[in-house]
Specification:
Blueprint lengths: L1 E5 L9 E5 L38 E2 L4 E2 L16 E6 L3 E4 L14 E4 L3 E14 L3 E9 L4 E2 L10 E6 L7 E14 L4 E9 L6 E5 L5 E7 L2
Length: 223
Amino acid sequence: MSKIALSPNASGSGTVTITAPNTNTNRTIALPDVAGNVVTTGDTGTVTSTMTNATVATYASATNTFTNNVAAPAFTGTSGTSFNAFGSDAIGDSNVPYNSWGTPNSTYYRWVLPKAGDYRLESTMRIRLWGVHGMILSRLYNNTTSAVINDKYNYSTVRMNLENRGGGTAETFNIQIHQTWIVTTSADNQDIHHQLFSDNNSANSSVQSDTNGRNYHAWYRIG
């Protein structure tokens, strides 16, 4: 093994030794044509974010967040940035539109997505067909762009909530229904409404909100 010993400057007392391993193959180690420090495996303070490629995410230990290509606050559990929800147990009955789509309550039955990206949307709602026959459907509507939306994989967002088609006297149904979607938004601050549809023309086709069961709309940033 060959070695090169470098003497220190006048204020130093140690010697810097560069060694070459025993090898049967010619090796070339090229130094870059820029001024700067050579980094070793024992170096913990020389490499900075400006020395890495722009596509490499760097870790900021002081804030425990990722920077550059990672939307840091979206993945560190910050309410309003990585997740949020609307919920209420005091709205009362909200009639579902008959043979048309609409949002029974545009204050609570929606999701406001702060940044462009991928989201998981969830809802849990008290769906009511109280002594009447019919069905109630759900879909997602972007109230910001005034457009019905498909999910991330271009599937329809229409979901069946409840259907009762039996003959004779209709049962009294009031059921907590949970639904979920994966969606992508291409712009910030998108107001996504949870629209409903009923083919029963009565006040007994509704969404109920009281202390027996809270209606809840939550979103989670996932990409």
